[in-house]
Design the sequence.
C-alpha cells in the first residue's frame, strides 16, 4: 500500500485535480479548446522546467533562468529596433543564453561556487543587464516585427469544431519539441546516463571515469539556452519585451520539477514527470481562474498542493524504509 | 486585504437603484464579469477596481478580480481562461498592444472588453481614462494666470512617453499664447531614478544660471516628480520667497503634502480613479445592453488640486 501510495500518490492527486475541475466546470473545462489554451499558456514554463530538469538531474539548480529569460527577450527586441532580421535576433538571443549558461557552469564546476550562490549572483547580474539593454523600458508596438508577434498567435490547423477552427499553437509545438529533445538527451544518450550517474553519486561517477566537472558545466548550457528560448516565446506572446517579464518562471520551474520528482521511481527528475508537474500547475491556474477563486487564494492553494505532493512522497518513502 | 470577490448577496434596494440607473438598456443582471490586471498592488489601480466592484454590485453583476502580479503574459492566459468559462464581459487595465492574443480570443468569442486607463485598440469597446490634454490645460493656465501672463517659465516634459507628451503639447500652446511669457528651458529629466533627483539637479543648474530674483516666475511640470525636484532645488537655494509658482500633474500623495504645506508647489491635477472605475462599469453596462459606442475613448473629468483641497 505504502509503495503504491509513494509511486502513484501524486499521480492519483493529479488525476483527482483534473476530475474535480471537470465536475465543477462541466461545460468549459474538459474541452479541446481549453486544453489547447492550457498547453499554450504553459509552453514557456515547460521549456524552462525541462531545461531545469537537466541541472536538477545532477543535483544542482539554476536560479538565473527567470532573469535570463527577461534578458534574452529584451536583447532580441533591441536588436529588432536596430533593424536586425527576426531570425538573426533570435539566434543572437539564444547565443546570449548559451553564454549565460556557460558562465553559470564555469562558476559552479570550474571555480567551485555553490550553485545557489553562483546562480543567485548571475540572477542579479542578468536582471541588471536586462534593465541596461532595454533602458528600463518596455519595447513594444512597431518596434516588434509583425511576424515575431504573429508566431505566438498562430499554429497548426487541426480542423474545425462548432464552426470555429481548432489550432495547435506553435508555442505548444515548440515546447513539446524542446521537451522531446531533452527527454531523448537525458534518457537515451550516454551523456544523459552520465548526468544521472553524477546526480546519484558524483564521487563514484568521477572514480568511474566520468568527466564530472565538464559535464556539470554543459548541463548549465541547457538551462541558459532553455531560459533564452522561453524568454523569446514570452516576448512573442505579448508582442513586447520588458526587463522583468521572466521573473515568475524560476520558482514555478523548480516547483514543477519537484512535483514531477514525487512521481518517479527513485525520486529522480525526469522530463516526462516534469511535464506532469508543469501540467498540474497550469491546470490549477486555469481551473481556479474559471472557478473564480481569488488570485491570492489561488497562490496559497498551489503552494499547498506542492507541499501535499511532496509530503505524500516523503511519508511513503519512510513507510518503505521502516519495513 | 480590502479586495474580495463579489458574489451574490446584494441588498435589494441597492439593486433596485442600480436597475433604475440602467433603464433603457437591456438589464444585465447576474452577468459574469472578469477584471484582469497585472497592477492590482498599485494604488491607482486599487481605487478603480474597488469603484468598479461597487458599481458592479449595484448592477447585480458577479465580478471576478484577477491579479497576475506584474505578469503580462499571464493576463493573456487569464483572458483565455475566462473566455473559455464564458464570461459576459472583460475589463483590463494593461496596454492592449501587449495582450493582442488575449483580445483576439475575446473578440472571437464576441465578449466585449473595456479598458480602464488601458490605451486604445480596435478590439477594445471603450477605454475609460483621464484626458491628458485637459489636465495640462488646467495647470498651464493656472501658471499663466498666477504670473499675470508675463515672465520666465521652466518646463519639465517627457516626450518619449505618449501620455505625458500630450501634456507638454498643451502647455507649449498655452504659454505661446501669452506674448510676455518666455519659456526659459524645456527640460526632459532623466527618470531612471524616479525623476525627482535629476529634476532637482537640472533646476539647481537653472537657478544658478538665472540668479536675479524674479527671473524665474514659474515651473510647469508635466507630472509631479519634477515639480517636487524643482521645489527641493528652490528651497535648497534659499529662493523660496521669490514667489516662484510650481505646478505638477497627478496629485500623488507627496505632491498633495507639498501643496498643502502652502509653499511654492501650488497646484496639481487629480485623476478621478473612482470615477474611472464606476464609469467603466457603466460603459460595460451600455455595451452589454446592445449599444454601439460612438467614441471608444471615454474621459472622466479631473480636478485641480490646490492648497484649498489638497488634503481631501
Sequence:
Amino acid at each position: 500500500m505504502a509503495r503504491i501510495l509513494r509511486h502513484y500518490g501524486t499521480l492519483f492527486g493529479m488525476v483527482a485535480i483534473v476530475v474535480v475541475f471537470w465536475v465543477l466546470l462541466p461545460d468549459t473545462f474538459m474541452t479541446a479548446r481549453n486544453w489547447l489554451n492550457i498547453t499554450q499558456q504553459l509552453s514557456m514554463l515547460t521549456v524552462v522546467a525541462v531545461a531545469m530538469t537537466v541541472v536538477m538531474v545532477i543535483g544542482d539548480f539554476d536560479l538565473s533562468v527567470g532573469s535570463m529569460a527577461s534578458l534574452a527577450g529584451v536583447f532580441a527586441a533591441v536588436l529588432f529596433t536596430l533593424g536586425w532580421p527576426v531570425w538573426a535576433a533570435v539566434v543572437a538571443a539564444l547565443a546570449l543564453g548559451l553564454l549565460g549558461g556557460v558562465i553559470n557552469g564555469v562558476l559552479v564546476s570550474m571555480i567551485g561556487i555553490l550553485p545557489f550562490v553562483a546562480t543567485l549572483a548571475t540572477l542579479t547580474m542578468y536582471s541588471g543587464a536586462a534593465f541596461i539593454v532595454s533602458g528600463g523600458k518596455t519595447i513594444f508596438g512597431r518596434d516588434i516585427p509583425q511576424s515575431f508577434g504573429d508566431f505566438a498567435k498562430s499554429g497548426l490547423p487541426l480542423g474545425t469544431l462548432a464552426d470555429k477552427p481548432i489550432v495547435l499553437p506553435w508555442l505548444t509545438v515548440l515546447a513539446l519539441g524542446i521537451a522531446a529533445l531533452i527527454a531523448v538527451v537525458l534518457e537515451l544518450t550516454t551523456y544523459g546516463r552520465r548526468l544521472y550517474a553524477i546526480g546519484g553519486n558524483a564521487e563514484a561517477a568521477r572514480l568511474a571515469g566520468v568527466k564530472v566537472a565538464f559535464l556539470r558545466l554543459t548541463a548549465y548550457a541547457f538551462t541558459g539556452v532553455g531560459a533564452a528560448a522561453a524568454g523569446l516565446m514570452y516576448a512573442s506572446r505579448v508582442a513586447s519585451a520588458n526587463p522583468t517579464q521572466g521573473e515568475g518562471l524560476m520558482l514555478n520551474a523548480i516547483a514543477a520539477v519537484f512535483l514531477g520528482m514525487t512521481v518517479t521511481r527513485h525520486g529522480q527528475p525526469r522530463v516526462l514527470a516534469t511535464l506532469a508537474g508543469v501540467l498540474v500547475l497550469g491546470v490549477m491556474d486555469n481551473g481556479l481562474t474559471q472557478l473564480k477563486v481569488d488570485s491570492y487564494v489561488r497562490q496559497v492553494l498551489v503552494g499547498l498542493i506542492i507541499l501535499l505532493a511532496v509530503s505524500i512522497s516523503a511519508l511513503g518513502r519512510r513507510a518503505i524504509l521502516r519495513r | 486585504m480590502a479586495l474580495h470577490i463579489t458574489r451574490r448577496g446584494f441588498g435589494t434596494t441597492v439593486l433596485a437603484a442600480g436597475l433604475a440607473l440602467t433603464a433603457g438598456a437591456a438589464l444585465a443582471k447576474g452577468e459574469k464579469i472578469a477584471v484582469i490586471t497585472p497592477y492590482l498592488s498599485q494604488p491607482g489601480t486599487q481605487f478603480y477596481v474597488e469603484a468598479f466592484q461597487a458599481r458592479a454590485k449595484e448592477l447585480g453583476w458577479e465580478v471576478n478580480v484577477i491579479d497576475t502580479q506584474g505578469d503580462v503574459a499571464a493576463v493573456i492566459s487569464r483572458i483565455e481562461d475566462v473566455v473559455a468559462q464564458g464570461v459576459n464581459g472583460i475589463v483590463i487595465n494593461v496596454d492592449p498592444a501587449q495582450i493582442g492574443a488575449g483580445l483576439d480570443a475575446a473578440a472571437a468569442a464576441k465578449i466585449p472588453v473595456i479598458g480602464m486607463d488601458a490605451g486604445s485598440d480596435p478590439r477594445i469597446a471603450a477605454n475609460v481614462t483621464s484626458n491628458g490634454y485637459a489636465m495640462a490645460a488646467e495647470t498651464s493656465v493656472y501658471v499663466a494666470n498666477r504670473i499675470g501672463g508675463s515672465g520666465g517659465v521652466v518646463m519639465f516634459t517627457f516626450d518619449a512617453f505618449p501620455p505625458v507628451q500630450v501634456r507638454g503639447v498643451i502647455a507649449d500652446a498655452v504659454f505661446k499664447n501669452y506674448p510676455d511669457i518666455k519659456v526659459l528651458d524645456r527640460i526632459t529629466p532623466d527618470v531612471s531614478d524616479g525623476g525627482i533627483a535629476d529634476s532637482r539637479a537640472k533646476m539647481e543648474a537653472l537657478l544658478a544660471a538665472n540668479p536675479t530674483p524674479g527671473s524665474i516666475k514659474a515651473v510647469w511640470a508635466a507630472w509631479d516628480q519634477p515639480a517636487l525636484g524643482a521645489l527641493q532645488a528652490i528651497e535648497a537655494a534659499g529662493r523660496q520667497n521669490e514667489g516662484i509658482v510650481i505646478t505638477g500633474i497627478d496629485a500623488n500623495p507627496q505632491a498633495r503634502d507639498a501643496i498643502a504645506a502652502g509653499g511654492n508647489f501650488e497646484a496639481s491635477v487629480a485623476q478621478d480613479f473612482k470615477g474611472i472605475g464606476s464609469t467603466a462599469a457603466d460603459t460595460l453596462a451600455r455595451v452589454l445592453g446592445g449599444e454601439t459606442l460612438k467614441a471608444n475613448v471615454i474621459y472622466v473629468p479631473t480636478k485641480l488640486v490646490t492648497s484649498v483641497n489638497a488634503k481631501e
About this structure: DSSP finds 13 helices and four strands in chain A. The CA atoms of residues 2 and 318 of chain A lie 9 Å apart. Chain A touches chain B at residues 25, 27-29, 31, 33-34, 37, 40-41, 44, 135-136, 138, 140-141, 149, 152-153, 164, 234, 237-240, 242, 244-245, 247-248, 285-286, 289-290, 292-296 (CB under 8 Å).
